[in-house]
Design goal:
mainly beta, three-stranded antiparallel sheet, about 180 residues, 9 strands, four-stranded antiparallel sheet, 1 helix
């Protein structure tokens, strides 16, 4: 505990001892488990703007010539849209031209106000989901050892930190 290894360090090495022969290096095999310290940090606001999708979609087209985008806009200016663009690009007489296809998903905005307890609950769930879906699956034989939550009050929300320790297998076997 308290020791550190860097990439490339030899952590398991074998030597065979005999009464008749000099000590001889032999290939050694083993498993090295470490506890690594990590953090999940995120700011959460008491008031959040939430998009409520109406289910209405609009489609339109456009053309881009040398990075100048021209969209045929048939959208209602009083409504809000999330726009997804798909393009087919080609070169014509030294100009880069793309035909653009837009999918516009209509939504309305609502302001949601949450309490500190609700924010801490959301932060805890997000932190656990991040560890279980993004961190542990990408490590070899990893297990969560411990977690320590820190919640700091900021002007219009909280700053959440989850300091967690993961036990994981490291190293590769190399023959000499």
């Amino acid at each position: 505990e308290g020791s550190y290894v860097e990439n490339g360090n030899i952590v398991i090495e074998g030597v065979m001892y005999s009464k008749i022969l000099e000590p001889t290096l032999v290939p050694a095999k083993g498993v090295v488990l470490i506890n690594s310290n990590n953090e999940f940090k995120k700011e959460y606001k008491y008031e959040e703007i939430v998009k409520n999708y109406t289910g209405k979609k609009r489609y339109t087209i456009g053309i881009t010539i040398n990075s100048k985008e021209n969209m045929l806009n048939y959208l209602n200016k009083d409504k809000k849209y999330d726009i997804t663009k798909n393009s087919k690009t080609f070169n014509l007489f030294g100009n880069v031209i793309s035909l653009d296809f837009y999918e516009c998903n209509e939504y309305t905005e609502t302001i949601v106000t949450r309490t500190k307890e609700e924010l801490v609950d959301i932060a805890t769930k997000e932190s656990k989901e991040y560890i279980n879906t993004q961190v542990i699956p990408n490590l070899k034989n990893a297990k969560l050892v411990s977690e320590d939550y820190i919640v700091e009050d900021i002007q219009d929300g909280i700053f959440f930190t989850n300091k967690y320790v993961i036990n994981e297998e490291i190293g590769i076997f190399r023959e000499r």
